[in-house]
Write a structure and sequence with these properties.
It contains nine helices and 17 strands. The protein has 382 residues and is of the alpha+beta class. A six-stranded antiparallel β-sheet has the order 2-1-4-5-6-7, covered by helices on one side. The protein has a six-stranded mixed β-sheet with strand order 8-14-15-3-16-17, with helices on both faces. A three-stranded antiparallel β-sheet has the order 11-12-13. It is globular and about 65 Å long. It starts with a strand and ends with a strand. 41% of the residues are buried.
């Protein structure tokens, strides 16, 4: 499935903007502040109903408007359908696909998965565990048959109730047991889903990173093997997946008094993490900045490759990578991207920054120049 058209209304500095006749590879260039990233942000919102730049939808809607609208024409083997979202300053949300209203954003999970690589992505190794949980859960969410979102919602509700009981001061074993059983049941399911996706991501990463590193001539780094070791830490001892529910329930029961002193639940999937290491050392302490960025790109592309293998059509959003990666790393990255089969939207300030990597697939490349004015526009270049 490809996005063939994209139409924006009252989205940040773009009062009205349209990109038509989109293709496999779409290169968007323009000056800073012209609205390049806003176009990627709009595609992201179509996929997940939210921005990757702001949690407050009011800051995205133009000041004089009450709502923003993003609409795309999706092409699946010649079958074209509209996908649209309207978000209002009054917190309203309307989703439509093929003329029919969708009940919730979970219905979008398999329609338009988007993988984003932008400057913030490079905090994956060095950022907090929450950043890595979000990375892992992106792929779990999009595999619709797993039912991740439903289980995660149940888990968060039970966790909130247990934490409220812990903060009361006087523990009620019977009340705690009720919510602990729900945490253990849903927590074991969430962990099993995450473990499966982690193993698939790790396998895909090894293949992609080998190609990237080979093209960069980085088979070693200061005597270390640059192959990255990844370990999934579920946030509790689930004995490698054996009897997970009962193990988590027992841990929660044993932790009641100490959790009560802390005022929150200290174990569970909400504390999960991915540990990256090289030769027994934290990867972020061994790798150079350029190597960290290469690793993160490989991890992101590995997730995209994994979903494509699951039969999903993925759109890659590459925001201003020329500012983050040197020419050699860009060429290596785009070489891998061009073989994935994903639709690509890439931004840069200068058109020439994105030229070198796309010669092999030039017939599928479309270029758009974005200029900011009172209306905002995106014009395709011949």
């Amino acid at each position: 499935m490809l996005i063939r058209e994209l139409h924006l209304s009252h989205f940040r500095n773009l009062a009205q903007a349209s990109l038509e006749d989109l293709d496999q590879f779409n290169l968007i260039h323009g000056r800073n502040g012209s609205g390049k990233t806003s176009i990627l942000e709009a595609i992201h919102m179509l996929s997940l109903t939210r921005s990757f730049r702001s949690r407050q939808v009011e800051s995205i809607i133009q000041f004089e408007s009450s709502a923003l609208v993003v609409r795309a024409v999706l092409d699946s083997g010649g079958d074209r359908r509209n996908l649209g979202i309207q978000r209002g300053k009054d917190k309203s949300l309307v989703l439509k696909y093929g003329g029919e209203r969708l009940r919730s954003f979970t219905d979008l999970s398999g329609l338009l998965p988007v993988q984003l690589i932008n400057p913030d992505s490079f905090m994956l190794l060095e950022g907090s565990p929450a950043v890595r949980r979000q990375f892992l859960d992106w792929s779990v969410f999009h595999v619709k048959h797993l039912g991740f979102y439903q289980e995660w919602s149940r888990y968060r509700k039970a966790l909130k109730q247990r934490n409220a009981l812990l903060r009361r001061g006087k523990l009620s074993p019977s009340m705690l047991a009720l919510w602990e059983e729900e945490i253990a049941l849903t927590g074991a399911k969430i962990t099993a889903m995450r473990r499966r996706q982690f193993e698939l991501t790790e396998k895909a990463y090894q293949a992609i990173s080998a190609e990237l590193l080979a093209s960069l001539g980085e088979a070693s780094f200061q005597g270390h093997d640059v192959s990255l070791s990844m370990r999934f830490s579920p946030g509790w001892d689930d004995r490698e997946g054996e009897g997970g529910e009962s193990a988590l329930l027992q841990i929660l029961e044993q932790a009641r008094e100490q959790d009560a002193r802390q005022g929150f639940t200290r174990v569970g999937p909400h504390r999960a993490d991915i540990r990256f290491s090289m030769s027994g050392l934290p990867a972020q302490d061994v790798l150079s900045r350029g190597q960290i960025k290469t690793v993160v790109c490989a991890l992101k592309l590995a997730q995209a490759k994994m979903l494509i293998a699951e039969g999903l059509d993925v759109a890659l959003l590459l925001d201003d990578l020329p500012a983050e990666l040197d020419r050699q790393r860009r060429a290596a990255l785009f070489s891998v991207v061009s073989q994935l089969g994903a639709q690509v939207f890439a931004t840069s300030i200068d058109e020439s920054d994105l030229d070198d990597a796309w010669f092999a697939c030039a017939e599928k490349v479309k270029r758009f120049h974005v200029e900011h004015c009172c209306r905002g526009n995106a014009e395709a270049e011949k």
